[in-house]
Amino acid sequence: MSTVKYYLPEDRIPKAWYNIQADLPKPLAPPLHPGTHQPIGPDDLAPIFPMALIMQEVSTEREIEIPTPVRDVYRQWRPSPLFRARRLEKALDTPARIYYKYEGVSPAGSHKPNTSVPQAYYNKQEGVKRLTTETGAGQWGSALSMACAFFGLECKVFMVKVSYQQKPYRRGLIEAYGAEVIASPSTETQAGRAILAENPNSTGSLGIAISEAVEAAAQDPEAKYSLGSVLNHVLMHQTVIGLETMEQFTMADDYPDVIVGCTGGGSNFAGLAFPFIGCNLRGEANVRIVAVEPSACPSLTKGRFTYDFGDTGHLTPLVKMHTLGSTFVPPGFHAGGLRYHGMGPLVSHLLDLGQIEATAYDQLETFAAGVQFTQAEGIIPAPEANHAVAGAIKEALRCKEEGKSEAILFNLSGHGHFDMQAYIDYHAGVLEAYEYPEEEVAMALAGLPSLG
Amino acid sequence: MSTVKYYLPEDRIPKAWYNIQADLPKPLAPPLHPGTHQPIGPDDLAPIFPMALIMQEVSTEREIEIPTPVRDVYRQWRPSPLFRARRLEKALDTPARIYYKYEGVSPAGSHKPNTSVPQAYYNKQEGVKRLTTETGAGQWGSALSMACAFFGLECKVFMVKVSYQQKPYRRGLIEAYGAEVIASPSTETQAGRAILAENPNSTGSLGIAISEAVEAAAQDPEAKYSLGSVLNHVLMHQTVIGLETMEQFTMADDYPDVIVGCTGGGSNFAGLAFPFIGCNLRGEANVRIVAVEPSACPSLTKGRFTYDFGDTGHLTPLVKMHTLGSTFVPPGFHAGGLRYHGMGPLVSHLLDLGQIEATAYDQLETFAAGVQFTQAEGIIPAPEANHAVAGAIKEALRCKEEGKSEAILFNLSGHGHFDMQAYIDYHAGVLEAYEYPEEEVAMALAGLPSLG
């Protein structure tokens, strides 16, 4: 019984990204200026993003061409493989057909280089010398520092302090790529100093680190800022995942009945699902789409769909999204990439339109699923990806109960090689489940601006 | 400037391994019984190995068929990619063409599953219930435990104590595959207890861990022993690497002028080089072959070519090899997979025949090379593989000096995701160089049996 690989030749790397904004039955609510609360235009974003990315952010063209130098870098690891998990199917004794798209084949080990490479490319094209960014668990920081090394840009990464301390290995990788890593909150920015003045022992959060990185870019005329998820153009860059997967399903002579992805800011989920949701929206298919989030940071299942800031320091524009409140600091579970108070506006909008479902799992359930997957398939998933694994296994067991042979597809967005402490803790029985922090969320939501 | 990938479709996974014993101008010296010092036969090995592997060990057939269930597992990650390192070439400003075969794409992250999978398969075929083995840095332990999980075998891994303590992440992976991990020397075996009686603080060595694993297998009628390098059949299983590479060079319309690999027991080196050495031996080609070893454990460049034991407890047969003495305990450098007192008999024999060259680098040189490679190519190499990177860079700089455009091929045998502490130490300037421990080697060599 063997895992089956569906491999595309490299000339089948997509030539264009898919922009779901072309197919939305109702457009996105516009982002608002953090000071005036009025809709912002491209010029408002110019201090922190290159114009090419700003134009992608607001485009409603269905296809946006992938520049040749970006495809040239992609082909080091793309097209990524699609696998049929026959050994996992056997272990679960399910009639379901389980497929996973594996993005851990990138040198940085996750789907993140799909967007870090074009972001570095466009910035380089527009004469930028250095990029600033934030990182939680470190997947994004390593992906951006790698892309900067390839294109000859400097890179400064504000790393959430608790991850900086607890995940020295990811930090080591970012440093090996030649980037500078700063524990956030830091004394380098006004935003960081303000947090430290209030709480010198702050362990940081993605929201705080974003404030620091944005401020650092805005103050340096040779620098721009780069974000690894949430924004429309970032999610669009990830659609190479789903576009390849469609071709691979054609090779397999199959089509997914249900698609599962984990959601933090939404980028790996969108990357796999958006091309399929596009087919749904155009009436060409009818696939169930399931987002899986941590029950300790459940923006889609428990958050409010409203305008909120992307960061804790309230330097970013306001966007309409599912949010737990921009001052909410999620508990310290291992899936650092999912520890974000909000959700990408496009993913939020699609949930609001009824195009996707959302569900939440606690940390222990996701690691139980991840270990079962590892023993069947050999690949040890990142803690973030374990949420997708848990969701896929749940669907496979439902199929078993209902006697249905459905095709289940999920995104194995990255490997867990830099997150082994979590597996060691799980093995030792000391991993925590983490409940939903209801009171903290209520308090953070109470502080939101009322912009509906 | 982009890395170029040469990808073979999965129907081009080799159907047979290449057995270099068929092409040797002079046969290997026979292994000797550890007690009688007489040549051993297959029956002497039957308590610890399945008969299929014993017959491969002594075979002189040029091709040995790869069983279909083994190829079925291989195709999850094979054929592995061959890359042309154009960005590294540019960084070095060399006229050389640098190629690397990347074995880190296996789920366990190194070339080791190429042999752990067939070893688990043949043992399962012959009714074995569990396998015992040793591991240093943990690449082999994780590869065998993964293969055992796939074929439904139990697995017990004796892990060198210093690695058990310093590399908890690799141990975590082995445990995630469901195997039992024991710090060696342990109280579970007579060999382990003897070492501990002499030195309760022993940090262990591969030689000691082999003794323990062999003893544990010999005493359990349902168990056999499995080794990750050194032996003829193990090196042969790795030849899928070189056989694929030959096809990929045909795709690239090129042929290597020099091949570089790192050597501990010899398995990844042999895997890439043996099919090419076979062409050299048959007069069809004339490629330089360079083995790179750590200067702190330099069996090929400083060892004696003589009969010695494979283990410290002297339970294994005596084999003729380049050795630093079976009681020699190498210093604690990070390339744990190269911390072995001896060298595979086939690699040793080929050096003696003048078919290969050998060279040694200290730890700091190899990490400098590894970091340069990481920033150019994105993939962070295992400390073992950094030796091959250093060797390839040296050849590329020679080409630059000589104005020659040679094709340099090396084996990037695994990634460094579980070895990041070494990179962190390198970055912090606290990584040691490690000199050649001349006195310790002289002492160990003085204790060797005189069987020449």
CATH class of the domain at 4-10 and 67-109 and 233-445 in chain A: Alpha Beta
- Uncertain segments of chain A are none
Radius of gyration of chain A, in Å, reads 20 Å
* Protein chains sharing the most extensive interface: A-B, 47 and 48 residues
- What is the overall shape of chain A? globular
Biggest β-sheet strands, sense, barrel of chain A = 7 strands, mixed
Overall pLDDT confidence of chain A: 96
Give me the CATH fold name of the domain at 4-10 and 67-109 and 233-445 in chain A: Rossmann fold
**Assembly category:** homodimer
- Strand order in the largest sheet of chain A: 1-4-5-15-10-11-14
Overall structural class of chain A, as computed from helix and strand content, comes to: alpha/beta
Strand content of chain A: 15-25%
Cα distance spanning the termini of chain A: 53 Å
Give the % helix of chain A. 40-55%
| Helix run count of chain A | 19
The total of beta strands of chain A comes to 15
* CATH architecture grouping of the domain at 4-10 and 67-109 and 233-445 in chain A: 3-Layer(aba) Sandwich
